[in-house]
Amino acid sequence: MILYSNNTRTQVTEFLMICFPEMQDTQHWFSLVLAPLLVLALGANFVLLLAIQREASLHEPMYYFLTILSLLDVILCLTVIPKVLLIFWFNMKPISFAGCFLQMFIMNTFLPMESSTFMVMAYDRYVAICHPLRYPSIITEQFVINAAIFIIFRNLLATLPTPVLAARLNYCAGNVIENCICANISVARLSCEDIRLNKLYQFVSVWCLLGSDLVLILLSYCLILRAVMRLQSGGAATKALSTCGSHLILILFFYTLLLVFIFTNKAGKKVPSEVPILLNVLHHLIPPALNPIVYGVRTQEIKQGIVKLFKYQR
């Protein structure tokens, strides 16, 4: 809906999300992939959360970090994917002004929180492998609490201006968002005001937050690799490399998918508009689906906790 004001400009009170502008008649087929991935992501994360909650042996810092990661994954999935499926299945394109900026706030805040969680988990693995004797005194429950506070407030304070700046714009140029989600720039383009500040702030905040996280993660794993190569026991080195290797691949996939989205979005008309839109949606779905599976499969204690959980249900 658009309300007309006294100064002949229009005031937007809701937006319409049309997802893939050039594929309106066929875009519903994407739901055949998105719906199963959503069920997988939610199911795997809830199983992991229940296993950690019920198994006393998993009440340790490393698994608390996995709990934080799973909670972030669930929130991101539920913030984005159900609305996308409603658009595909029932053509429910409208989203309220407040609802759009709430979605934008959650996406812009929780994705960097997930990045920070990966960083803290990489530090946890660094201490466990490089300083095993000091691990119990460094990675304590108080450390987990401090890390959680850091993750929340660091990213909240840094990303809050993004939706605030977008919400303060005067939307008089239309209300059709050519995207499946309320991405900052996709929405800001509908404003009749200058949005260079919005673009600049998002660019700086994203690269500062995720860039610093990625550098520290890579540094941690380089130090881990150096320590593993010095291990006298070949079996211990192989186990450490196998576990950390799968975690690092998962982390790099998270950042690679994000970087591909950013660069394809910057490429403009050189890349079909559907590509960055699809990548944006998948970035809120594929990592949440893979994270609990990889960490669960590669961690013996979690596998045992999941087996006990299903035995308990019977």
UniProtKB/TrEMBL annotation:
<feature type="transmembrane region" description="Helical">
    <location>
        <begin position="204"/>
        <end position="228"/>
    </location>
</feature>
<keyword id="KW-0716">Sensory transduction</keyword>
<comment type="function">
    <text>Putative odorant or sperm cell receptor.</text>
</comment>
<dbReference type="GO" id="GO:0071396">
    <property type="term" value="P:cellular response to lipid"/>
</dbReference>
<keyword id="KW-0552">Olfaction</keyword>
<dbReference type="GO" id="GO:0004930">
    <property type="term" value="F:G protein-coupled receptor activity"/>
</dbReference>
<feature type="transmembrane region" description="Helical">
    <location>
        <begin position="95"/>
        <end position="113"/>
    </location>
</feature>
<dbReference type="InterPro" id="IPR050402">
    <property type="entry name" value="OR51/52/56-like"/>
</dbReference>
<keyword id="KW-0807">Transducer</keyword>
<feature type="transmembrane region" description="Helical">
    <location>
        <begin position="29"/>
        <end position="51"/>
    </location>
</feature>
<keyword id="KW-1133">Transmembrane helix</keyword>
<dbReference type="InterPro" id="IPR000276">
    <property type="entry name" value="GPCR_Rhodpsn"/>
</dbReference>
<dbReference type="InterPro" id="IPR000725">
    <property type="entry name" value="Olfact_rcpt"/>
</dbReference>
<dbReference type="InterPro" id="IPR017452">
    <property type="entry name" value="GPCR_Rhodpsn_7TM"/>
</dbReference>
<keyword id="KW-0297">G-protein coupled receptor</keyword>
<feature type="transmembrane region" description="Helical">
    <location>
        <begin position="240"/>
        <end position="263"/>
    </location>
</feature>
<dbReference type="GO" id="GO:0005886">
    <property type="term" value="C:plasma membrane"/>
</dbReference>
<keyword id="KW-0675">Receptor</keyword>
<feature type="transmembrane region" description="Helical">
    <location>
        <begin position="133"/>
        <end position="153"/>
    </location>
</feature>
<dbReference type="Pfam" id="PF13853">
    <property type="entry name" value="7tm_4"/>
</dbReference>
<feature type="transmembrane region" description="Helical">
    <location>
        <begin position="63"/>
        <end position="89"/>
    </location>
</feature>
<dbReference type="GO" id="GO:0004984">
    <property type="term" value="F:olfactory receptor activity"/>
</dbReference>
<keyword id="KW-0472">Membrane</keyword>
<feature type="domain" description="G-protein coupled receptors family 1 profile">
    <location>
        <begin position="44"/>
        <end position="295"/>
    </location>
</feature>
<keyword id="KW-0812">Transmembrane</keyword>
<protein>
    <submittedName>
        <fullName>Olfactory receptor 56A4-like</fullName>
    </submittedName>
</protein>
